[in-house]
Specification:
Structural class: mainly beta
Function: Eukaryotic CPN10 homolog which is essential for mitochondrial protein biogenesis, together with CPN60. Binds to CPN60 in the presence of Mg-ATP and suppresses the ATPase activity of the latter.
Oligomer: single chain
Number of helices: 0
Protein name: Chaperonin 10
CATH class: Mainly Beta
Family: Belongs to the GroES chaperonin family.
Organism: Coemansia reversa (strain ATCC 12441 / NRRL 1564)
GO molecular function, one term: ATP binding
Radius of gyration: 16 Å
Largest sheet: 6 strands, antiparallel
CATH superfamily: GroES chaperonin
Number of domains: 1
CATH architecture: Roll
Distance between the termini: 29 Å
CATH topology: 10 Kd Chaperonin, Protein Cpn10, Chain O
């Protein structure tokens, strides 16, 4: 089982893998790592069960695994594990996600 699949968000939290920008142009020119911008786009890896109301009912989030989403420029909690060296994962509240891309 991969390390990411063991991370289960609580309540309305959503685990997102940020999509990396291309480091190569269409003509094959390599772009330096510092010049590559971070994209504000990601893929949902896992979703918590949702918020709980005062009456105890769970309100599920509108996202599911595999959805492509638009992320805010700032925010989210970075997830750092030794086994996830080359990939960037962030934990957001469902209400912080700007949009679902189709």
């Amino acid at each position: 089982m991969s390390s990411v699949k063991r991370i289960i968000p609580l309540l309305d939290r959503v685990l997102i893998q940020r999509i990396k920008a291309e480091s190569k142009t269409a003509t094959g020119i390599l772009i330096p790592e510092k010049a590559v911008e971070k994209l504000n786009e990601g893929v949902v890896v896992s979703v918590g069960p949702g918020n709980v109301t005062k009456e105890g009912k769970t309100i599920p989030t509108g996202l599911s695994e595999g959805d492509r989403v638009l992320l805010p420029s700032y925010g989210g909690s970075p997830i750092k594990l030794d086994s996830l060296k080359d990939k960037e994962y962030l934990l957001y509240r469902a209400e912080e996600i700007l949009a679902k891309l189709q």
